[in-house]
Write a structure and sequence with these properties.
The protein has 239 residues and is mainly alpha-helical. It has nine helices and two strands, in the order αααααβαβααα. It has a two-stranded antiparallel ribbon with strand order 1-2. α1 runs parallel beside α3.
Amino acid sequence: MPTWHCRVTSAEKPSNEQAIFQIIQDKSQQLVEQDAQLMDSISGGMSIDPLAHLARAQALLVYQLISLYDGNIRLRHIAESHIPVLDNWMRQTVDYASQSDSLGSFLVSPSCADAAAKCLPWEKLVWYSWILAESLRRTWLVVSAITGVYLNSRSGVAYCLGGMMFTSRQGFWEAPSALAWQKRCSEIYGGLVRLTETDKLFAMVAPEDLDDFAKLALRITFGTEQMEKWGIEIPDSPS
């Protein structure tokens, strides 16, 4: 299985700007080119690792965010050609994850997931499975948002990767252990919701009961003014 990682730098200056752009271009292209290697390995009978598939999608997502919004024409052109690639990777990841009987075992031992599933306590296996599934769901939503906003602002094109629920209530994603997560599950509904239904949260949930991801999704969808009316203080952006 190839290794997928994303390497960027925040030390962008006029003197090294072009070098950084070239690195981003090369790394993103290399990441996409590894897809053929992966598909050949799967065709040859290699076991499917949903965690690795999610990792490559997240790595490409970071490159897409930089390339689509930085302003460099060359990077933007390449990133536009990678939009269908990332869409396809996300769909593949969901498909592969849905085929796993013990998704959480991949967080413990990706190369020996079946053996790990037999050794893990049941409560940890369930918790790990939820973590990986929720990571996939949230990544799906971020991909959809970043691509959708770009295409809409560029040419007014409506874009939707597809509906995906996510856990909106505070205390689930932040749980430090399987025991804490199970306790939270027994106390309150996790608030699974689609982005198209998030307006219901304004009427049904207090602001302090939502986690940071849900608040960010609401702010992106409905704007800062609506969030402030609801009781969420939005800090001023740095000048």
